[in-house]
Amino acid sequence: MLTSRLPGRVEPYKLAAHAEHLDGLVALADMGRLTDEVGAQQGDASVWLEFAIDAQGRRVIRGRLEADLQLPCRRCLEPMAQHVASDFLLGLVSSDDLAADLPSTHEPVLVENEQLDLLGVVEDELILSLPQVVYHDESACPVSREQLSSGADAEASEAPSGSPFDVLKRLKGNTES
Ligand SMILES: [Zn+2]
User: Fold this and answer.
1) pLDDT digit string (tens) for 66-102?
2) Ligand 1 geometric centre to CA of 166 (Å)
3) What is the pLDDT of residue 165?
4) Which of 21-30, 42-51, 168-177 has the lowest mean pLDDT?
5) Alpha helix locations (H) across 29-95?
6) 104: CA distance to ligand 1 center in Å?
7) Which of 30, 45, 92, 155 could cross-link to 59 by cystine, CB 3.0-4.6 Å?
8) Distance, CA 86 to ligand 1 centroid (Å)?
9) Nearest of 120, 121, 40, 134 to residue 84 by alpha carbon
10) CA-based angle 105:111:112, to the nearest 5?
């Protein structure tokens, strides 16, 4: 169980040269782009990082992150608990040109002035690891499948990915008419 905070900025080339390990917690509430994607979050992401120079001389970070998020159910838009975990392999590059030389197994991260914005990297990885869509179990979702299909004619069944608001609007229209 991690208790310490991950540092916000590090000098990754030094850490790679010494094959250092870093782990720690990152507050989810500080992640503005994550909040934009899935709404405000509480708690921490747990992060484990190994800095290394690989056999080809590349400076790399092998990492793992885990977080318990509250993601909006696609059907009712209410938040639901979702455990997210991701393993990743990052290649450190000092320019965008060098990123093109990395094998596809490595995600490039840009190091400027020997500094790496570690929290930005963790946030990027967390956003990449988000599931595309999440749904409550039908029994637990305030918007049941029956509700979705009862007001649904051809239009809805052709567009099952429509906004839940559209469905609610249609349901309302049906009861009024
Ligand atoms: Zn739901």
Assistant:
1) 999 999 999 999 999 999 999 999 999 998 888 888 9
2) 15
3) 58
4) 168-177
5) 32-38
6) 37
7) 92
8) 25
9) 134
10) 160
Cα 64 to averaged position of ligand 1 atoms, centre (Å): 29
Contact 47, 25 (CB under 8 A): yes
Query: Alpha helices, DSSP H only, in 31-144?
Result: 32-38, 96-99, 118-128
Cα–Cα distance, 16 to 84 (Å, whole number): 27
Give the model's pLDDT for residue 151.
55
Q: What is the residue extent of each domain of the chain?
A: 9-128, 143-176
Both tokens assigned to 102: 């990395």
CA-CA distances (angstroms) from residue 67 to 100, 123, 152? 30, 11, 37
For the segment 104-160, what is each residue's pLDDT rounded down to a tens digit? 999 999 999 999 999 999 999 999 999 988 999 888 898 876 666 665 444 444 445
How far does the centroid of ligand 1 lie from the alpha carbon of residue 39, in Å?
A: 15
- Compute the distance between CA of residue 97 and CA of residue 138 in angstroms, rounded to an integer: 48
